[in-house]
Design a protein that fits this description.
- Helix content is 33%, strand content 18%.
- It is α/β, with parallel strands linked by helices.
- β5 (82-94) and β6 (99-108) form a beta hairpin.
- The two termini are 59 Å apart.
């Protein structure tokens, strides 16, 4: 069976799409266009997926059609339109020191595979905000996820040449399909050419010879269906189409836009009205002759760059099909009538022709020209010229669609008068924009401004030869008592791990004699990883613990003398509430009990403490400024006055006073160990000079010096009228810095579209209190960008998770109960957390053990490491992390500093907390405030944070949030700076 298929479209749930993109209208327009098969698009969106399940029925072999009662209402005659399940996925991620932005069309054969795929993606990113989800996921991992969804699932890379969002795009793509999909690239068997290229262009690149070429409309409204299509001669079902693309059996070819009509065909700058050929662009080094900024490099230029065959070469690979180049019928009618293609007169004439001749493809390709000419001589002549390729071309560029014409102006004198020239030479192209004809002065190419490369900007861990004098002194210090003051970005972990490695090599002391204590499992893991690189043969023998894991191991070895049984359990305060009163025993210890019991054990049995002093001859303690009274006592038992101890930390980052932490122990270290040697690490290798200087001024310390030797920006202080406007500013700025995460962002001028190397994981949004969360979450969800709310809080501290755990019974398997509860908690517990819980329960036999395991899980433990997302976290949770771009929200009196901070000591801790937040930033720092903010349901006008008063204005750039009406663009845009 011969049919046309359009397999890349969108629903009304995608951004910038028509509200008419429902299944009925898509089917109606598919029939008008002459399509036999279309895709559903957007099946990952929950509302659209429900609509698909409600309105479609299986038609065999993976194809679907509208339910009979719906078909009966909208179709009187003709064969039904069939649907295939598909969705376009946008992936934005870092690979090879470059931000990649690649779009993919995913196909699945049935509802079960679609559900599996949705579940897997829901655990990774936000699939509910946009019909075309945006994920921070490597393309290779997306392909793997697709293959795992169900047998027969596959991916076709979308519009492979589009500059910003494609596998081979000039802005953020790769140089080959293999480079993008890695070891799974052999699972790719077809690629989509896109509107700005045609098969002949793709045949110039031999790397693409093995792929079948497909063309689709990427329609955002029903009337735009079939702008491009793929032609088959096989059964109109899922597996036959897949087989045709894999083997060529049943694959006929493609219906194409003239590539010049695509909006990224040639190079240029839309704002400057500059459109250039690849040759002209090369002369100018890619720089716009009007504004001096890099131009958008089009598809033709990019194809030339990767081509290894001459463009005059007529070679066709074995995978090649037939090529049919068409102009949409409404555009032909529009040209003849000299009115807009969406005008009522064009619409009426289009509908009349469809009623008479059957479908648009029939008119453009099959109906005899003589028959059409009897009805409309001009239309007949136009279609004759179209079928013989006699068209006038004006290439599109930088988001501006090109124009394909069939008549010269002189042939269409006035609307009611025709002067048709039947024997003319049709020019190959229309004149380019005026500024494309370059003045002589521009023939010498201007040079682009020097920008730091991603490689240069990346702060790699220092090699030993790169240690500065302060770091070297600390690493090679063999004194038994050492205190290291390590400011932010000073290489604290580098120094601590290299000192341990140095001592093991220098002294010959066995690795098992060394103990390092950290506060978090994340820090312990990082330390362990670095030591494995430094000491591959000895690292596994070094003892690396958090305070709690160390005490747990000590109590397990000495449980009887600690007054415990050998099967004692560790639970959280929240978990304790899940047990019945009679179930609670003395062998159930909460976290803080671990340290308390261990200290008491050492106090009651000094000889036990001495055995651990002998076992751990060398003690290193990280983040010493945050220890509390019990942790201090534990350290003193392990390292008495004559012990070997190295403490490292920064009093300016002491932020845990609310839970008993105190920098007094750091400040009193010299009293505890009078012969201590003190080394101050003064150089910050993380942050730019402006960030270091501003944070120094804010906290009134001046001993930290920036060693970041790259160009840097001022710190942005943004004032928004409301907390919602503040959140919108943050989200819009991230879009801008990424360079746009969608065609909508680029084409609406929401972003500059200029080259950046930021991906989602480069951004952190830091907030002080949960009262700030609602507008931030709403803005991020609306944007569709992937994000995750991170914290070091226990998972069961969250009320919905606690309620879920309380609801579990012993009546049926826990996994079954989780699967049933997932729907009820969909709005309260994220997909990725449910995914984690379902994986966790696989190896657990009963409810009690499962609850115990969950009580040990922190929110950050549930993350899929493959995902690339924006981090939304509290200032406290950001401790120890770093990001290229940091936003600190809520710089207001009452938020930072928090309203509860009433004493001078509490206010100073708030100041240190802001210092921690500011110094997480490597390259860009944004400090924002809202004039009016909702706090616990009350709208308040808040003054700017007094902490900012100390920062010199020369380091700052001020911005306000404004919405500006733009008559030319008929859109609104953020005025950021």
């Amino acid at each position: 069976m011969f049919f046309y298929a359009d397999l890349h479209i969108h629903s009304k749930y995608s951004r910038a799409t028509s509200k008419d993109c429902n299944l009925e209208q898509l089917a109606i327009w598919a029939q008008k266009k002459g399509l036999g098969v279309i895709s559903t698009g957007d099946f990952t969106h929950p509302a659209w997926f429900n609509e698909i399940k409600e309105k479609l029925v299986e038609d065999g072999n993976g194809a679907f059609r509208l339910k009979p009662e719906i078909e009966k209402q909208i179709f009187k005659t003709s064969a039904p339109v069939r649907f295939l399940l598909s969705v376009e996925i946008s992936t934005i991620y870092k690979k090879g020191d470059k931000t990649r932005k690649v779009h993919h069309v995913v196909f699945v054969p049935d509802m079960k595979a679609a559900g599996n795929f949705r579940d897997k993606l829901g655990a990774i990113g936000n699939i509910n905000s946009d019909g075309r989800p945006i994920l921070g996921l490597d393309s290779r991992d997306l392909l793997e996820t697709t293959l795992e969804a169900g047998e027969g699932s596959y991916i076709i890379p979308a519009h492979i040449w589009t500059p910003w969002f494609s596998v081979l795009g000039s802005k953020s793509g790769f140089d080959s399909i293999e480079e993008c999909y890695g070891d799974l690239s052999d699972q790719i068997f077809a690629v989509e050419t896109g509107l700005s290229s045609d098969p002949e262009m793709n045949w110039r690149v031999s790397k693409l010879d093995k792929f079948r070429l497909v063309s689709n409309s990427d329609a955002h409204s029903p009337s735009k269906l079939a702008r491009e299509a793929t032609v088959f001669d096989t059964s109109p079902d899922y597996y036959s189409i897949m087989n045709a693309l894999k083997t060529g059996n049943g694959y006929v070819g493609t219906v194409e836009f003239f590539p010049e009509e695509g909006k990224y065909h040639e190079d240029g700058h839309r704002k400057c009205n500059v459109c250039l050929s690849p040759e002209e662009t090369k002369k100018l080094n890619g720089i716009c002759p009007v504004c001096g900024k890099p131009m958008t490099i089009g598809v033709l230029n990019r194809v030339c760059e990767l081509a290894d065959r001459n463009f005059n070469n007529t070679y066709k690979p074995d995978t090649a099909g037939k090529v049919f180049s068409l102009v949409p019928l409404p555009e032909i009618i529009s040209e003849i009538m000299q009115v807009g293609p969406a005008s009522k007169s064009v619409t009426n004439e289009y509908e009349r022709l469809i009623r008479k001749y059957g479908s648009e493809f029939s008119i453009l390709r099959e109906v005899p020209v003589e028959d059409i000419s009897k009805d409309s001589p001009l239309l007949g002549e136009g279609i004759s010229r179209l079928r013989t390729g006699k068209v006038i071309k004006h290439a599109g560029y930088d988001g501006e669609y090109g124009v394909i014409r069939l008549f010269e102006d002189s042939e269409l004198v006035k609307k009611n008068f025709i002067n048709l020239k039947l024997d003319i030479d049709i020019p190959k192209s229309l004149p380019k924009p005026a500024t494309a004809k370059l003045p002589e002065a521009y023939l010498t190419a201007p040079k682009a401004e020097t920008q730091p490369t991603a490689e240069a900007s990346k702060n790699e861990p220092q090699k030993k030869s790169d240690l500065d004098k302060f770091q070297k002194a600390a690493v090679e210090n063999t004194h038994n008592r050492l205190l290291i003051i390590a400011g932010p970005g000073s290489g604290k972990t580098t120094v601590l791990t290299r000192r341990i490695a140095y001592l093991i090599k220098k002294t010959g002391v066995p690795a098992e004699k060394f103990l390092a204590i950290t506060f978090t499992r994340r820090a312990a893991g990082e330390m362990r990883e670095r030591l494995h690189k430094l000491l591959p043969d000895n690292a596994e023998h070094i003892n690396i613990h958090t305070f709690h894991s160390l005490c747990l191991s000590i109590l397990k070895e000495n449980y009887e003398k600690a007054g415990l049984s050998n099967d004692f359990k560790v639970i959280s305060e929240q978990e304790k509430t899940l047990y019945k009163e009679e179930e609670i025993t003395k062998d159930m210890l909460v976290f803080d009990d671990l340290i308390t019991f261990t200290v008491k054990l050492f106090e009651d049995y000094p000889e036990i403490a001495q055995t651990y002093q002998e076992r751990f001859k060398y003690l290193s303690v990280d983040e010493y400024q945050d220890i509390d009274e019990n942790q201090y006592k534990l350290i003193k038992h392990l390292a008495p006055d004559n012990g070997n101890i190295c403490a490292i930390g920064d009093p300016n980052q002491a932020i845990y006073g609310f839970r008993g932490g105190s920098s007094k122990f750091f400040n009193n270290f010299q009293q505890d160990y009078p012969d201590v040697e003190i080394i101050n690490l003064k150089n910050n290798y993380r942050s730019t000079e402006s960030i270091v200087n501003a944070s120094n001024q804010m906290i009134e310390t001046y001993n930290i010096v920036s060693k970041y030797d790259r160009p840097h920006e001022k710190i942005t202080i943004h004032t928004a009228p409301t907390d919602k406007a503040e959140a919108e500013f943050i989200v819009s700025t991230i879009e801008n810095l990424i360079g746009g995460h969608s065609f909508f962002s680029i084409d609406s001028d929401r972003t500059s579209g200029e080259k950046t190397d930021y991906s989602f994981s480069d951004f952190a949004i830091l907030y002080r209190t949960s009262s700030q969360l609602k507008p931030l979450l709403e803005a991020l969800k609306r944007s569709g960008m992937p994000f995750v709310k991170l914290s070091d809080d226990l998972l069961c501290d969250r009320k919905p998770v606690l309620n879920l755990l309380k609801s579990l019974t012993d009546d049926e398997p826990v996994l079954t109960q989780l699967e049933k509860a997932e729907k009820d908690y969909k709005d309260e517990i994220e997909d990725y957390i449910f995914k984690y819980l379902k994986e966790l329960v696989q190896n657990i036999e009963n409810r009690k053990d499962f609850i115990h395991e969950v009580s040990l899980v922190k929110e950050c433990d549930t993350l899929d490491e493959r995902a690339d997302r924006i981090s939304l976290m509290t200032l406290h949770a950001s401790k120890g992390l770093e990001f290229n771009c940091v936003f600190v929200a809520g710089l207001e009196q009452g938020i930072i500093p928090l309203y509860r901070a009433e004493t001078p000591e509490a206010i100073e801790e708030e100041r240190r907390l802001l210092y921690v937040g500011m110094t997480r930033a490597k390259q860009r720092l944004f400090l924002s405030r809202a004039i009016k903010r909702h706090v616990f349901g009350v709208s308040k006008n808040l003054e700017i944070s007094p902490f900012l008063a100390k920062i010199e204005s020369d380091l700052l750039a001020y911005s306000k949030f404004e919405r500006e009406s733009q008559e030319k663009e008929n859109s609104s845009q953020l005025s950021l700076f």
